[in-house]
Amino acid sequence: MGHVRDLRLFLLSALPLAFAGLFFGGVYSYNRPPVLRKILSVPHSYGDDHNPASPQQVHISLVGEDKMRISWITESSTPATVEYGTSPTKYESSANGTTSSYRYSIVYKSGEIHDVVIGPLKPNTLYYYRCGPASGRDFTFKTPPAQFPIKFAVVGDLGQTEWTDSTLQHIAKSNYDMLLLPGDLAYADFYQPFWDSFGRLVEPLASQRPWMVTQGNHEVEKIPVIHSKPFTAYNARWRMPFEQSGSDSNLYYSFNVAGVHIIMLSSYTDFDPSSQQYKWLEADMGQIDRKITPWIVVLVHAPWYNTNTAHQGEKESDEMKASMEGLLYQARVDVVFTGHVHAYERFTRVYNGKADNCGPVHITIGDGGNREGLASKYEDPTPDISIFREASFGHGQFEVVNATHALWTWHRNDDSSAFVSDSIWLRSLSSDPACQYRGQR
Ligand SMILES: [Fe+2]
């Protein structure tokens, strides 16, 4: 029965997909090499007792400095309750939250999406938890440290293929504290059950460490007439702590963790100087205290610097850069992580197209392993500002050791084993006297 329903949903989704292709032809026009590995689809196991109230797609995200949002989905309606504590199966605390669901076009209704914020929690501590009453599934997570060092896993354009699976296995072994994702998560591309499959695929990692994400073009899922509201599934399933940073949208927000101020931007929302996003970013940057957060990291999907032949000339890259690059430069942002191009590329410190010692290092990390394959053609000769570029799947690790130094490494998926292909030590701009500016706190 489930297969029949899935087939029907797929066929009903194919029409809007083709229709949408007419409108988004520019975005999907790049002709990538074929993918050599299988696309994964992860079914719901229902647990041992085939209980439709069994939690699935569990993932967590940081809220403020000492709380955690627990998100999960059930097929039947159950209370949004999380029990938690610091000893196995002994849940001293509990919290209640909210439940929602969404419809996509006329054919799809999501499961029950539960959302509970727990805390205050101690830093760098292992917590045990379970979702819903007597669910039979027990989980653990570790909170991030309150001080340096902290290690981030960084991966974009993840998708759900066997390459994705390799990437996730490598990340799982990295002993990371928090995952940062600069957009393009499930590659559901209008077919909503793929969002559920993605949730199940990432659950083993995303239920154990906070996954902080922003969105890409594959999250828009807007179809004229049929489904005109953008980001429906993304906003319902991947709620991020935007209110805490004064943002009015789940699509852009910021937070502090262990001395790093992290800003998530939206390539597919207005970004011109009169936009809400721009005004919010300006205000957010005005409040950064470099004594509390010596590092500033920005994530945005479409790259502002890119020497790959894929995705050149898109307005989300060129016009957003023209609008916002000055703000980032004035704030002395250290690193900008982007995705969209399915390859790895690291630039030197750069501003306004030229090498600049006080500009951010731009890194494209859109190589998580999605079904569209790699973008392997580059501009020739290599522009001077591009330091390292390679079209392979993989992930990055950003280990901020202290207020002044951080180690960036890029781990290529080399025949299924992680291989450090690029690494560089970075010094924070706040510790560089040559990059001090008037008004810096
Ligand atoms: Fe993309």
Report on the structure:
By secondary structure, the chain is α+β, with helices and mostly antiparallel strands. It folds into two domains: about 55-140, Immunoglobulin-like (Sandwich), CATH 2.60.40.380; about 150-435, Metallo-dependent phosphatases (Purple Acid Phosphatase, chain A, domain 2, 4-Layer Sandwich). Helix content is about 20%, strand content about 30%. Helix 6 (about 275-285) packs parallel to helix 7 (about 315-330).
Q: Topology, please?
A:
Elements lengths: L1 H22 L1 H4 L27 E8 L3 E8 L6 E5 L7 E4 L1 E3 L2 E2 L3 E2 L2 E7 L7 E6 L7 E4 L7 E5 L7 H11 L5 E5 L10 H14 L4 E4 L17 H6 L15 E5 L2 E5 L11 H11 L8 E5 L15 H16 L4 E4 L5 E8 L2 E2 L5 E5 L20 E5 L3 E7 L4 E10 L2 E11 L14
Parallel strand pairs: 11-12, 12-13, 15-16, 16-17, 17-20
Antiparallel strand pairs: 1-2, 2-8, 3-4, 3-9, 5-8, 6-7, 9-10, 11-22, 14-15, 18-19, 18-20, 18-21, 22-23, 23-24
Helix pairs in contact: 6-7
Fe (ii) ion (FE2) binds next to loops.
Keywords:
19% helix, alpha+beta, 29% strand, Calcineurin-like_PHP, EC 3.1.3.2, Purple Acid Phosphatase, chain A, domain 2, binds fe (ii) ion, globular, PAPs-like, 441 residues, Immunoglobulin-like
Quick overview of this protein structure:
By secondary structure, the protein is α+β, with helices and mostly antiparallel strands. 19% of the residues lie in helices and 29% in strands.
